[in-house]
Structure to design on (157 residues):
């Protein structure tokens, strides 16, 4: 089996990773899974925020009282990541900016694991049997890489 690069892994010119081809099959699986939950409009964000504030009510103060705009922002950010899977450099710029902004809102590195877990649970709830656990596991890995990039950018603020 040939080694392939994760669509969220950024390869810097000259880095050996830059010679590793992108895993286009993984790109398609991640996109396919996202399309299932995205087909429910903002439902992913609604379920996610309900879970977040249930599990971590102390984080509620970081968000506006009306979550419609916030839900749209979350979905727009995920849309952009998925759209740019085949261009990880475009994602790193956006994720770096997002990480710095989130640090300014008070987001701490330990919050990211909560978000990953709850986004996966929300995807599972919305997608149901249409999304196998293996696909959720792939998304968990992608979200971990996304979080790592955001945390790294926040630490350079």
């Amino acid at each position: 089996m040939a080694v392939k690069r994760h669509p969220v892994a950024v390869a810097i010119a000259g880095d050996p990773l830059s010679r590793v081809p992108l895993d286009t099959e993984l790109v398609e699986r991640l996109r396919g899974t996202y399309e299932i939950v995205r087909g429910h409009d903002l439902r992913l964000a609604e379920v996610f925020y309900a879970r977040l504030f249930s599990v971590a009510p102390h984080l509620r103060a970081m968000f506006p009282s009306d979550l419609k705009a916030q839900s749209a922002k979350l979905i727009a950010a995920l849309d952009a990541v998925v759209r740019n899977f085949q261009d990880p450099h475009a994602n790193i710029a956006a994720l770096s900016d997002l990480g710095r902004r989130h640090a300014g809102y008070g987001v701490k590195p330990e919050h990211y694991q909560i978000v990953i877990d709850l986004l996966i649970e929300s995807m599972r709830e919305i997608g149901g049997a249409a999304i196998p656990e293996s696909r959720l596991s792939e998304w968990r890995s992608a979200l971990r890489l996304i979080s790592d990039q955001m945390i790294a950018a926040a630490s350079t603020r």
Remarks:
- The chain has a mean pLDDT of 92.
- The domain at 16-154 is CATH 1.10.490.10 (Globin-like).
- The chain has one domain: 16-154.
- Helices lie at 24-38, 43-55, 68-83, 88-104, 109-127, 133-154.
